[in-house]
Amino acid sequence: MRYRKRNKRGTSSVFLAIVLSAVILVQCTYFSLVCDLNRKMTICRAVSSQVDSFLADYDRTLFSVYGIYAFDINGIDCDIFDSVMEANGMINGDTLAVSGVYTFDTDDLARAVAVYYSYRMPGVAFTSFMNCFSGITECLELDDLAKALRDFGRSDAASFMIDFVEKSDRIREALESVMSQFDISEVSEKIESFGELMEELDDMDSDGLDPEGGIGSHGLSVASEAISRVIGVFSAGSSFIEDVAFHPFAVHYAAYNFDCSVGPHTSINGTDLGMIHDGVYPDVEYILTGQTGNVSQYEVNLLVYGLLIGKNVVEVLADPEKREIVEGVAEVLEALVLVLTVGSCQLPSEVYVFLVAYLYSKVTALSDYGKIMRGDKIALISSGETEIVQVGYREILYFYLNFIPDNTLLERMHTVIGRDFEGYVCGITLETTYKGEIISFERGYAMYE
Question: Which of 78, 160, 425, 443 is the most exposed place for a label (fewest CB within 10 A)?
Answer without folding.
Answer: 160
